[in-house]
Amino acid sequence: MSKSDFNETKEIVKASAAGTYKKHKGLIIGSAVFALLAIVLIIGTVIINTDEVSSRLIYSFIPDQLYIEEVGRTFYSELNEDYDSDVDGQDLLATYKTYYITVDENGNEVKNYIDKTEVLRFGENGQVDVNLVFLARAAEKLAKISQTVKTVAAVLIVCAIAFGIYLWYLSYKKREAAAREKVYKNKNENRHNK
Predict the structure, then answer these.
(1) Contact 61/144 with Cβ under 8 angstroms?
(2) Are 58 and 95 in contact (CB under 8 A)?
(3) CA angle 157, 160, 166 (to 5 degrees)
(4) For residue 35, how many other CB atoms are within 10 A of its CB?
(5) Contact 92, 58 (CB under 8 A)
(6) Backbone phi, then psi, for 119, in 5-degree steps?
(7) pLDDT tens for the chain, residues 1 to 194
């Protein structure tokens, strides 16, 4: 292949690509955005599946502190840095630790950690599982966020459908204009040929 043949082929491919891009610009841009979102979701899924990230994500929903009226005490939470899904399984309670603070005889604050199976008793028959109370508050927060995400997703879907209809309408108008132009051109040619 000679250099001139190569340049000619290059110009043909370039013109073809430019024409294709011009005709299908919306489709190409939409496909690129879709591909980018897919890549971000895949990378996000891989990152979230690591122990450190997943435990931090779960812990982000856990309240920092919580006053439990029945026990009459404020409890605190902290991230369990030793969480390992291979050892703990998918136990959500293992991703964080709960404790209450007491003061020792020297006036120093002491963290009293609550075992994840420990149930605190109050009154005659009352009992409370502090870890589950923290988890329940986290579930309430997650439910609110989930509802917000659903609402945003619904709005995005409606916008995507509206955008698709708009693109179809533009394409339809182009086809109609091209058809009218063709009919008009044929009428003019027929009039001149008579």
Answers:
(1) no
(2) yes
(3) 145
(4) 10
(5) yes
(6) -115, 125
(7) 566 666 777 677 676 666 666 666 666 677 778 788 888 888 777 666 665 666 677 778 888 898 988 878 899 988 887 777 666 666 777 778 889 888 888 889 899 888 877 777 766 667 888 888 888 888 888 888 888 888 888 888 898 888 888 888 888 888 888 888 887 777 666 665 65
